[in-house]
Design brief:
It is globular, with a radius of gyration of 17 Å. Helix content is 12%, strand content 33%. Strand 6 and strand 7 form a beta hairpin. The chain is mainly beta and 162 residues long.
Length: 162
């Protein structure tokens, strides 16, 4: 019987699904929130080139599929956000790709990549924040989700995730 390639297909799909996902290796704290994480050297270099400095910020729509909705629901896992203003050399309309964690007391959103409207995807390090540095989820949020009153927040450039 000739060998088949079918057994390799699940491995290839899994490899492609996890490629470029540094968030998969983040250690979780006891409350389910993500632990600290270093930014890659590539992201730090890219942010210098794009004139993105630590603490620079801009408005962001947390979920590109729920722009201007109220309330919105975020789910644990990948997220695509929409940049409302300029962030360094990134123009409004840039898509930010990252990960959401909802298990802790606050929603945590970390961004690992940006895709400008007319450019290639580049690595970055940024976090979403809202009022006093936090994104508070509503008490009626179910496990694995976070209901937020507003679709917008601020995105801040960081040099590591704490």
């Amino acid at each position: 019987m000739p060998p088949t390639r079918a057994p390799r297909l699940p491995c290839v799909v899994l490899l492609l699904a996890t490629a470029g996902c540094p968030a998969g290796s983040v250690l979780l704290r006891a409350d389910g929130s993500p632990g600290s994480e270093k930014c890659s050297e590539e992201a730090l270099k890219t942010m210098r080139i794009l004139r993105m400095h630590v603490s620079d910020s801009a408005g962001v729509e947390l979920d590109a599929n729920q722009i201007d909705a109220s309330p919105i629901t975020l789910y644990d896992g990948p997220v695509e956000s929409y940049l409302d203003g300029s962030l360094g050399n990134l123009d409004p309309g840039t898509r930010l790709y990252g990960r959401v964690w909802t298990s802790g007391p606050l929603v945590v959103v970390r961004y690992y990549e940006a895709k400008p409207p007319d450019g290639d995807t580049v690595p970055i390090c940024a976090v979403a924040r809202l009022g006093k540095g936090q994104l508070a989820k509503r008490p009626d949020s179910k496990p694995g989700t976070a209901i937020l009153d507003y679709s917008g927040a601020s995105v801040f450039v960081v040099d590591s995730f704490r």
